[in-house]
Amino acid sequence: MRFKDVFSIIGPSMVGPSSSHTAGAARLGRVARQLLGEAPTRADIVFYGSFADTYRGHGTDLAIVGGLLDWATDDLRIAQSLQHAEAEGMSVSIKAGKAVTAHPNTAKITLGGTTRTVELLGASIGGGNIEVHAVDGFDVKFIAMYPTLCVYHKDRPGMLAEMTAVLSRAGVNIGHMDVDRKGRNGEAMTVFEVDTPISGELLAELGRLQDVSDVRLVDLEAGVGAS
Amino acid sequence: MRFRTLKGLAALCGEQDDTIADVMIADQAAESGRPAIDEFAKMAEYWAVMKEAVRRGLTEDTTSRSGLTGRDAQRVMARVEAGDVALGGEAGRAMAYALAVSEVNASMGRIIATPTAGSCGIIPGVFVSAQERYGWDDAKMTRGLFAAGAIGYVIANNSFVSGAEGGCQAEVGSAIGMAAGALTELRGGTPEQSVHAVGLALKNTLGLICDPVGGLVEIPCIVRNGFGAVTALAASDMALAGVRSVIPSDEVIQVMLEVGTSMPEKHRETAKGGLAQTPTGKKIMKDLYGKKK
């Protein structure tokens, strides 16, 4: 069954006009914000495909910036998100790109904060649902329906076993995981979609593992998480 | 869920002497693992959002960002209040309320996707006007939304509910079927009558293409929500009078799948056909995007 429950039919609560162009875009922006883990000071957004063609009319730009402000899909301030972003000191650049992408509603979001940066490539696939296709150049897929851990680490034997052992000891069930590396023995990222909220202690424990350089948490139910 | 067809849903109701809403509430709680009362509370919040969207659409400026649409609900409502609509006040109100919610959507207001944002006016249009007319309480209306959701769940899993996949028949058509079936139950119809209402309604939207001008959820989406609310009332009336969908409703859903799948891409939300490619449609698109193309 493609649709699992009554709220995938009645809902989501959202700011119009389009579940793909606004609700999905807001969620993409929010995922990028949570991956950065702090308020962005600079945001470069590139729209592709149908997003590039109709973002002005649909307010896709406003929705994605609403997400960057960590707002939910039905936050009424979305219509004025650009002014809010400016007031909060976030400089925003929006462009239409030409590249061929995996999905017609794709956006690339590059964020700079006071301590770090993040780049996300993702698509809005309908009904407010999204798919992340890449984070910081790592080709990792996740859908942000569940608490999601993005772990930056070195590619070496035993790394996955150590990470899953930490999650296992904490009683956390992994629903889906994805790994990508930039080269053998080089930088890698592992993404875990899990069934239960992740505590700050658990994040810290993962971060203390040898050869883990950073851990970020995306949890759209909980709001900004990782630091 | 314990059902995947409308026939199965009605049979389940019959076995347990339950309404469609009862079955949906129980199955939703089983699926989510949360208590039924929590699921009910979430739906009640959605109901409040729908009522608020009707109110805003009738009283506030709903001019869309493109400037193409807005305030049509208020125009229609003025005629309703003047007692000068051919439909009569009850259907006129359902139509005006549906337009109101769709205009709120087009102007970036808060709505509930039912089942999508493009078709978000129909269920609130039918439900809010029915609540006023019959004096039903919010709990009853919330139960009605579960019934609508059960019908939509069957349609969505056996066919489709998005214009990009199946044309406007999938989007507006599904919403009309959901509203018709749920209203029939709210008015005391049997589960079988509700199911017939769904089939009757869906038959009337088969083949409806998705051809948004400029790719925006405005023209013709908004007026189709207004028309859709009226169709839902008519289907419910026919079903309660004993009119049957001779082609069983589950088979009508399969036909929608067949028709939508065979629709050319240009008639599925791409703005490459239909009203979007009329001389006026093309001119509007050029005015909106011409500078950048």
Automatic annotation (TrEMBL), chain A:
Keyword terms: 4Fe-4S, Gluconeogenesis, Iron, Iron-sulfur, Lyase, Metal-binding
Pfam name, any one: ACT
One example GO MF annotation: metal ion binding
Necessary cofactors: [4Fe-4S] cluster
Alphabetical list of Gene3D superfamilies matching this protein: 3.30.70.260, D-3-phosphoglycerate dehydrogenase, domain 3 (3.30.1330.90)
Organism whose genome encodes this protein: Paenibacillus antri
Domain of life: Bacteria
Protein name per its UniProtKB record: L-serine deaminase
InterPro entries, A to Z: ACT-like_dom_sf, ACT_dom, ASB_dom_sf, Fe-S_L-Ser, Fe-S_L-Ser_bsu, Ser_deHydtase_bsu
Signal peptide, first to last residue: none
Catalytic activity: L-serine = pyruvate + NH4(+)
Keyword 4Fe-4S in record: yes
GO process annotations (BP): gluconeogenesis
Domain ACT: 148-220
Protein family (similarity comment): Belongs to the iron-sulfur dependent L-serine dehydratase family.
Pathway the protein acts in: Carbohydrate biosynthesis; gluconeogenesis
TrEMBL record, chain B:
Reactions it catalyzes: L-serine = pyruvate + NH4(+)
Top EC class for this record: lyase
Coiled-coil regions, chain positions: none
GO terms of molecular function: 4 iron, 4 sulfur cluster binding; L-serine ammonia-lyase activity; metal ion binding
Pathway: Carbohydrate biosynthesis; gluconeogenesis
Start and end residues of each Serine dehydratase-like alpha subunit domain: 19-276
InterPro entries referenced in this protein's UniProt entry, alphabetically: Fe-S_L-Ser, Ser_deHydtase-like_asu, Ser_deHydtase_asu
GO biological process entries: gluconeogenesis
Database matches in Pfam families: SDH_alpha
Enzyme Commission (EC) number: 4.3.1.17
Keywords: 4Fe-4S, Gluconeogenesis, Iron, Iron-sulfur, Lyase, Metal-binding
UniProt cofactor(s): [4Fe-4S] cluster
Family recorded in the similarity comment: Belongs to the iron-sulfur dependent L-serine dehydratase family.
NCBIfam families: sda_alpha (TIGR00718)
Record protein name field: L-serine dehydratase
Source organism of this protein record: Paenibacillus antri
